[in-house]
## 1
Amino acid sequence: MSDTKPKQNTILKVFLALIIIGIFILVSAFSGKELLGLGAANNEAANVEQNNNKDKKQTEWANLDKQPEVLAPIDLNYLTLFFNNMSSQKRERVISDKVLFKQVVENEAINRAVVSAAVANKLDEDSNIEFLMRRGAEAFLRDAYLNKLILSKLPKNFPADEQVKEYYQNNLDKFLIPERIHVWQIFLAKPTDDESLKTTKNKINDILKKIKKDKSVFSGLAIAESQHEQSRVNGGYMGLIKTNEILPSIKEPLLKLKVGELSQVIESETGFHILKRGEKQQAVQVELEQVSPKIKKLLLEQAKLQLKKEIFQQVIKEYPQGLSDTKLEEWQLSIEAITEKP
């Protein structure tokens, strides 16, 4: 038995060494260009397969026998544009840190090299990828155009203070913190069968008796017995509840309680409640100064959205796309016929 483990370790080491050697041989079997291409550059079998394929463009795109055209390496002009399109905060942070600057530029160089390899492999000539690239560029152009156009149409310093004030006065209810009250509860869900219902009623009444004898046990019993998870983990505390959102069957008996007083067992549609009331906080009107930045942002977003809708309506008139119900129906049937079903 003492010789078994050393022998097993030796076999394992040899096995791992063979795997490593195999991986090395596999990788070294490719030239640098072959490793970056999606097909073998000098492989007779691959060439035969390419010759037999009707779509030469699809099979030859990864052939790197010819000297490929690649993207120019990054230079100062490229980096100037690269950093100019960063946010000012990020740009200052990167430029002021020598180590970070080196890391960012090296990462961008790697990205540029990968794109160069993709171009060398003529991946950009694949019809699907070319379409997605074009569509992505068009989406960027569309958003840039819309943003510039919208900003050019908005009045300077929009919205003005008077507009903010007017919106505030016309929407005072939106800036009102409603009346709220601190509430604790112990809750047992209402069973559907009569026998379990009777047991649950007895249990909630026993819990109430224990609390009336010693109010300090409320939190412990809430944690142990309550079936309302959100409040149970907090010793029954439900938080500051808006009084206008409390269930009618609970609201009236709760508001009749004094601060710190316990309710009787209250039955609702969902179950049985023992409530403890805390302090009430009266409704408060938030001052204009506190919500002015929020209103400005809201008005700006609303104006941008309205302008965008108007631009869409106008642009489709100026540059019609010739859609019609008949054409849409024809296209749908054609695409359904040529699209592979899962």
## 2
Amino acid sequence: MKDYKPPFTITNEILTYVSSISEKVGRITATSNMEAKPHLRKNNRIKSIHASLRIEANSLSLGQVRDVINGKTVLGEQKEIQEVKNAYAAYEKLAEIDPFDIQDLKAFHGIMTKYLVDESGDFRRGEEGVFNGDQCIFMAPPAKFVPQLMDDLFHWMKSAQKDVHPLILSSVFHYEFVFIHPFSDGNGRMARLWHTAILSKWKPVFEYIPIESQVEKFQEDYYNAIAKCHISGESTDFIAFMLSQIDKILDDISVQITEDSELLSEYVKRLLDAMQYDTPYTSAALMEKLGLKSKEGFRRNYLHPAIELNLVRMTLPDKPNSRNQRYVKL
């Protein structure tokens, strides 16, 4: 149906959140240069991936997710490790997504579910439902309707992008996508990835804002908002919920940026500037780069503060004084 329009109502609460979020994004963009804070960007991306997978019952800890992304060996279920690798590959290409292209959606589902799903990159051919134990909470539309429903949704998005604010449009898409449940697996991960992709096209800073971690904190409320919309037949409650979470995470990001600026001494900044990412250095090599001669001064002023701030890690954390010890910028 070319004239299809997802049902939702723009309330005063929603408009208030749109105004608040827009103001906070403007302030963050104006007062902080995320490009100059790659450690914050990477840490937030890892948080996004960990939270989005945790919502789907992936049991790996934040540290284990970080280690998988950094290429370290992790003891864990192979399926869960592969989910992390796939999600990182997808999020690393976030800037390349055209969120209004249904073929991009299928391609990124292929990335997100590589080696995990038989129908990876294709719409489901079987029937799907959402269960709580043995109880069926929600039955998705029959598989035969999925292609048309998705075409209608993407056609609406393309036609509405000039008239509907991206904050509202992304939330409507998120709910409608979850309702249609177009894939046999990975629907939640894809809904959250696409939500971020839509917002990133509006304001690039959203590429590094871990909305997923905020949703994960309020996971029960997330599912309750979806359930309310299933009953009401429109996405208004879900829009308000998502905007409230985005508004909260922006407050956390502002604090994070302020603390980062205050905590980073000139010594630590010099150390980070001297190091390349994921490259192991000996302490002697770092001292030479910085033109330092005092081991004690280097450790006290440069190395130990950077490790405590989780900006640099030891390759042998259990053997801090090993002659084989190396230091890697995170």
## 3
Amino acid sequence: MSGRRGTVRVRPRVRPVAAVVAVVALVVSSCGFFDEPEPPDPDRAAGAAVLLGLLDLLVVAEEPPRVGYSRDEFPHWHDISGSGCTARQDALLAQAQGLVQRDLVQPCVIVEGDWYSLFDGVTFSGAPAEIDVDHVVALAEAWDSGASGWTLERRRQFANDPLNLLVVTRRSNREKADLDAGDWKPPMADAWCVTASMVILTKLRYEMTVDAAERDGLDEMARTCERSDQRTVPGVPLPGTPEFLGTARAVLAERGLTLPDDG
């Protein structure tokens, strides 16, 4: 106590160094600052490598001015699978989350169901009339990339090919419009791998070109296939899976090509 009444000096309490270190270590550990990084998944890394190799097969060429395009040049929502359902109905059935309620008289008609929209990360529940089935390679983009010189039958095949169809919300479909990967990417980055995969496989199957900016955009998205956060939906294989390899082999076989590892 000092010479002045009522004044008390309190000596600071010193914690043992070991105890302080232990507390700091506990806090750091709980925050994950020094966690070991997650080891890369070899299947995902291999899937990314395959997809980048497929991207290298696409011809890079500048797009000509758009002349003569019309959606009517691409007859769509036809049955090309022989299922008895239209291509839109097939996509809705294949990509639904869980069971759907079908019309009792017309089994191709879905009354309601649940779908996950990869582009914007929205889960939609209800009547499918309120959602879209998007051509991931848009019809106008296909026209600019070589389809203007196709026969009407080949454009019909393309416009109904399940390889290029993805169930998405109307809003995200409108935002994407007819843009390619050089001008637009899904706002949800965990959809980049599947989006790049669908575009690359579709453009390979139909021998469409990509311009330089689009190729760069596809390259950026394809590299995310190494990451563990990449999402997909039922019926749409993720690179690195046997289903994706089967699809890639089928597309290449149509072109008289094989995967490098297949000899």
